[in-house]
Amino acid sequence: MLSLNSTIYVAGHRGMVGSAIVRRLHTLGYHNLVVRTHAELNLCNQADVQAFFDAEKPDAVVLAAAKVGGIHANNTYPADFIMDNLLMECNVVRAAHHSGCQHLLFLGSSCIYPKLAPQPMREDALLTGILESTNEPYAVAKIAGIKLCESYNRQHGRDYRSVMPTNLYGENDNFHPDNSHVIPAMMRRFHEAKLRGDAEVVVWGTGKPMREFLHVDDMAAASVHVLLLDEATYKANTQPMLSHINVGTGVDCTIAELAHTMARVVGFEGRLSFDTTKPDGTPRKLMDVTRLKSLGWQYTINLEDGLKRTYAWYQQNVDQVRQL
User: Fold this and answer.
1) Which domains does the chain have, with CATH numbers?
2) Short-list 125, 69, 115, CA closest to 281
3) Which residues are named in the active-site annotation (predicted)?
4) Is-contact 220 23, C-beta < 8 A?
5) 49 to each of 33, 44, 87, 94, how far by Cα in Å?
6) 125-172 tens-digit pLDDT
7) Residues of the binding site
8) What is the pTM of this model?
9) Pick from 130, 47, 134, 132: which is nearest to 87 by CA?
10) Known catalytic residue: 138?
């Protein structure tokens, strides 16, 4: 069991999820946190990562560092997405084990599940079908991370856990107009259209796909909840070869519904249209969160409230965001 004096290394602490996890740990009284920027520690360099672990010897690791992006970025940089994520996962998990670190939490993604997985997607849908082609390299890397953790648990008796979040959004997100996920890309587009006085905003795809969205503060709360569970409780709700846990709301909406909600939150009063020449991606992605609820956690921030919080942050940091 971890105590408030335990040393916890949060990899990716400046990203959207990592920064939220740091905030959550601080709120709970965990102040012995270890962090490094990319300039200080390149997680793709095995020797540097091992040297860091040998020096710091953390009691626990939260592996929130990853190369992430939306459909456009995944289609454009597939080699980068699979290689960088595999390197980071392998280097951190290996170094954690060799430094004697018993506790690790790996953050994955809902894209690990087959494109046409039965909805809502249960944990046992993993490896039962073909992945969505637009982000397959990233998904394969995340699946490898899950299996890496499971393998160290089986062979070495480690307590390495994995959580698979649904689509995340919130403060410190990437708002790049091309390489970001749907909510930040859409928020920036609607905001800039409002400022220009545009009569119309064009949304990629048909608007028909259904997506589930989770605010990053809820994701952080769920992640820390799973990390701090006693081992007996965690094992009672997982299996050696099926150890990952879905994290989501269990509620979804169409992209068209999201767009109309976004317009309302941002204050854009023009019309919406849909560019059907752009890819939709997976038809539906809804997480089955039964396992997580049985472990005593469920979400607290609904979509519209979460978008309002995110837009307030965006407006306060718009100059920084526009540099992207």
Assistant:
1) 8-321 (3.40.50.720)
2) 115
3) 138
4) yes
5) 17, 8, 11, 9
6) 999 999 988 889 999 999 999 999 999 999 999 999 999 999 999 999
7) 12-18, 107-110, 142, 165-168, 181, 189, 204, 211, 280
8) 0.93
9) 47
10) yes
